[in-house]
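Q: Could you fold this chain for me?
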Amino acid sequence: MVDDNNINYLRHSASHLMAQAVLELFPGTKLTIGPVTDEGFFYDFLPPENFKEEDLKKIENRMHEIAEKNLPIEFKEISKEEALKLYKDNKFKTELINGIEDEKVGISSQGDFYDLCRGEHVSSTGKIKHFKLLGISGAYWRADKKNDALQRISGTAFLSGKDLRAWEKQKVEAAKYDHRKLGKELDLFSFHEEGPGFPFFHPKGQKVIQLFTDYLRKELENAEYKEIQTPIALNDRLWRQSGHYAHYKDNMYFLKIDEHNYAMRPMNCPGGILIYKNRPHSYRELPIKMGEFGKVHRHELSGVLHGLFRVRAFTIDDAHIFCTPNQIEEEVLGVLNFAKKIYKKFGFENVVTVLSTKPEKAMGGDELWDKATNALHTALKNAGEKYDIDEGGGAFYGPKIDLHIKDSMGRLWQLGTIQVDFFMPENFDLTYVGSDGQKKRPVMIHRAIYGSFERFFGVLLEHYKGKLPFWLAPVQAKVLTVTDDQKDHAQKIYKQLKENNIRVEFDASGDPLSQQIKTSQLEQIPWMVIIGKKEMENNTITLRYREGKQEFGLSFEDVIKKAKELS
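A: Sure. Below is the predicted structure, expressed as structure tokens.
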């Protein structure tokens, strides 16, 4: 597939352009893989001698030279036998080819350069103009330390120079508030070499997750969702039946239990399906809304792991709505409105809607795909919703609506998704009894609002620049004293605040007040409750805000009232 306006196709093509430049400059280099990432692309190489940082400029310049030749990018399929001959001297490509189940493999070429590929490029190298190489790092083949040590070159590319310049400016700003940096500074989470891609949440970080989970759980109950919990590992027969094995097995973890093959779930939907199938259903029950905060595991390449934004284990606020075909539009609109309400709580009022259609590798025929896609079109149009189209961006089992929010730095983040699925109800023979007494096939709507909890947490940290709002802060207030003479009285205030459900800490350090204030500000605690001689004598509180503003002579009741208004 060719599309000169698709950013992912452009970046895929840029990774090939980089590989071509590397081969021309460093003959004898072995190519491995070069996927697209959230921010750009990378390619892993085994060069005769290690690349140096100064080589990046040489490679970038050669890429521009090749791009100016405007070489057509052509894609074709050849037999595995032909492909193995092409790559007889490259053990990495040979391993990849032998792992492909189809009898044919894809080859993309431009000039004298060719690469093993699944397609999805721009039409020529001349379309790749606005790119930048970002750095060199180490990697291992197949992300396994037992395998060959490789060198990874990362880069990014954009459709216009304006977009590239804006990205560079944004990167400078965003680097100040990188969620990985904030997570360490604020003692929220960490990563360890014993589990690459698996985040460890510290008490304060877990509290933030608990807070936004509790908020969503309450709203889901109000919207008549029923919460369920399903197993994290299930027999691989289920994943074959659902279609995940055929379309997603490279991203799945497998294990053996009692001589049977199991898989760690990469998605939650099959578990919900088994609960639905557990008993018969009548049309009178529909729609049935099952919600689950489900932990999933996905095998991501080490090179695309990125803090909380791309991990190997994460929680999805999944829900599955089983409904009749006539209920699709109403349910989709209901999810849209629900999502916007949730996002508003976090200050996200600018929601961009994108309709993603059938991908190249998809389950089922065009008839059901057209039916599902038209249902989403109709729902969006009847809602008066403006939306963009992402051709080929749907899930393998159905088209979807993706919901993007804009953060405080003007960046778009895809969070929520709404997917209409006719295929899994077919695969699992799901039914309900209609008004005529006959068995009918329900439609399944897959729905998430936050998406990945981990990624959402990272987005929130960067959006608020570490200054989480009062209701979401793991510690809302800290009690400070001017001298040790006020410690006993301040302890009473601390206990009273705690009894009123304010998340509060007591500074027992003995530091001067100025240092206590500085420490609280570095910890991004919204309120500092200051008790001095005057406050103790008058039984009042001085409230100092994180930004430096102060209020004097407040009563305890005043402070509690303010807290309730912000919660």
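A (continued): The two ends are 50 Å apart (CA to CA).
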